[in-house]
Amino acid sequence: MRTVLVPVDFSETSLNAATYAVKMLTGVYGVNMILYHVYEKPEHAAASDKEMNLLKERLSDMGIVKMQILCEAGHDFGHCIERLARENPTDMIIMGITGKNKIAQIFIGSNTLKLIKKNICPVLIVPPGARFTQLKNIALTSDFTGAPSVAATAIIKNILSSYYAKLHIVNVNPEYHISITEPYQVVKDVMEEAFNGYQHDFHFIDLYDFHDTINLFVNDHSIDMTVTLPKDHNWLNSLTSGSHTKRMAHESTIPVLAIHY
Fold first, then answer.
1. pLDDT confidence of residue 174
2. DSSP alpha helices (H): ranges in the chain?
3. What is the pLDDT of residues 68-91, one digit of tens each?
4. How many angstroms separate the CA atoms of 222 and 238, rounded?
5. Which of 65, 102, 145, 178 has its CA 20 to 30 A from that of 23?
């Protein structure tokens, strides 16, 4: 990772995501973290700049990361983030999923999901209660209809290398009996080769409820981050429809990294 964008609207959720980002990026060589704020009216420029500088000072006391601030006027927060990320090649966007009130929940949540859909770069969704301690165990959820792309695999391997983490590749399917199917085995072999040289395990779980099973897996295996690979608009439609969002992101106790490749 070289450039990480952290949008801030001064809600508790965005401030928590910024804190998480600083602690996660401390010690990672060569990273430039951009704290980004959008204000609507020109008369808010001076106050916004002052608040962002104060935030930078507070965050600098929490970790050692190269950090810069950027404030600009705009009316569409999501569009401004997208434009900035495209103009300045960004390796990751780190932001929250809910806000401190109902309006903020809609504002932050919808913009986070829109960014995933735009497929600009990986988006790390930080739930309100998440606190960074370590990244030692990472779970990759897979439906085993195909292996991760070369680009997605490279991103995951970069994270594994940076944090000396172990990868847990998880599939939940109630139709398992004694062994996985032949098509699953083919995909498993491809992933086995892709992650050769990195600590990794495969977990095939024959339970019905995906979300409850993943939550149990996270607790039982001390998972620090979940990685999901949305492949098409069907996944995003289900994500934005309500129930999937609430269970996968809003109720998650650990960050979810969406790599849309």
1. 75
2. 12-25, 45-60, 77-87, 102-118, 150-163, 182-194, 210-220, 233-240, 243-245
3. 999 999 888 888 888 898 888 899
4. 27
5. 102
Rg (CA), the chain: 19
User: 137-256: same fold as 3-126?
Assistant: yes
List phi, psi (to 5°) of 127.
Answer: -70, 160
- DSSP state, residue 44: G
Q: CATH fold of 137-256, please?
A: Rossmann fold (3.40.50)
Closest CA to 98 of 251, 214, 216, 240: 251
What six digits make up the tokens of 234? Answer: 């069907």
Element (H, E) at 74: none
Under CATH, domain 3-126 is a member of which superfamily?
A: HUPs (3.40.50.620)
pLDDT tens-digit map of 220-244: 999 999 998 876 544 444 444 443 4
62-80 as b/e: b if 16+ CB within 10 A = ebebebebebeebeebbeb
Token output for 244: 């999937």
